[in-house]
UniProtKB/TrEMBL annotation:
One of its GO terms (molecular function) is oxidoreductase activity. SUPFAM superfamilies: Clavaminate synthase-like. Pfam families: 2OG-FeII_Oxy (PF03171). It comes from the Eukaryota. Keywords: Iron, Metal-binding, Oxidoreductase, Vitamin C. InterPro entries: IPNS-like_FE2OG_OXY, IPNS-like_sf, Oxoglu/Fe-dep_dioxygenase_dom, Plant_2OG-oxidoreductases. This is 2-oxoglutarate and Fe(II)-dependent oxygenase superfamily protein. Belongs to the iron/ascorbate-dependent oxidoreductase family. Residues 96-196 form the Fe2OG dioxygenase domain.
Length: 246
């Protein structure tokens, strides 16, 4: 959980207001847009709905700040691996890195034990920055048990994603997580996934691989090819990551 970050409380609150407004557009306003989730690519090219008014501007500010936070965290991860602070940024071409904005809308469910907001999965990319509207729902697998993430207000929950596991040759593990629904309140989550550029060939860092004592644990693959691999299958744990595991 990251606090004292670069996204002001006022901007976080405004982003939730805009997301709530999006999911409450009239049928005529929303037309063919999805009503229970929104997924848009926001970098290297920025895309956004034009409605409700103000959504596009708020989303652009929010994602730009989230991108900065992710890059600062990746510098610290690089250092923790014994690499130069800029290693991940340069090796994975983050100037053209793919950033995706995902908003999920979970209305109250009368039988929450019989429903699931999102099945267990790990994320593609490097780091996913998640914020919630105060309604508990995010769960992570910890020591074989699913536990609720009781997030500090206004914090960003940071999930390590598959390509950090690959680059670190398994020193970092991508986080298995899922979303539960509530019987009493509407839950809104906002996730900003930050990844390499689409054409980047992601392999374990050469500096972390030793032929005998620590061989490469993953085969290399272009990031956009990995995306295609994951999107072509239903979310199911680390099924995509298992495809590149040696």
């Amino acid at each position: 959980m990251v606090v004292n970050h670069d996204i002001p409380k006022t901007l976080m609150e405004k982003m939730f207001v805009e997301v709530f407004g999006f999911f409450n557009l009239t049928e005529e306003e929303s037309k063919s847009m999805q009503r229970d989730f929104l997924k848009i690519f926001v970098h290297p090219e920025f895309h956004s709905p034009d409605k409700p008014a103000g959504f596009r501007e708020t989303c652009e500010q929010y994602c730009r700040r989230a991108r900065h936070i992710a890059r600062e965290l990746l510098k610290r991860i690089s250092e923790s691996l014994g690499l130069e602070p800029s290693y991940i940024e340069q090796a994975l071409n983050l100037d053209s890195g793919l950033q995706v904005f995902i908003a999920n809308f979970y209305p109250p469910c009368p039988q929450p034990d019989m429903a699931m907001g999102m099945p267990p999965h790990s994320d593609h990319g490097l780091l996913t920055l998640l914020s919630q509207n105060g309604v508990i729902g995010l769960q992570i697998l910890h020591k074989g048990k699913w536990v609720n993430v009781n997030a500090i207000p206004n914090c960003l929950v940071v999930n390590v994603s598959d390509h950090i596991e690959i680059l670190s040759n398994g020193k970092y593990k991508s986080v298995l997580h899922k979303a539960a629904v509530s019987s009493k309140a509407t839950r809104i989550s906002i996730a900003v996934a930050n990844g390499p550029s689409g054409d980047t060939f992601v392999v374990p860092a050469a500096e972390l691989v030793k032929k005998e004592s620590n061989p490469a644990a993953y085969v290399g693959m272009k990031y956009k090819e990995y995306l295609g691999l994951q999107q072509s299958n239903q979310l199911d744990g680390k099924s995509a990551l298992d495809r590149v595991r040696i």
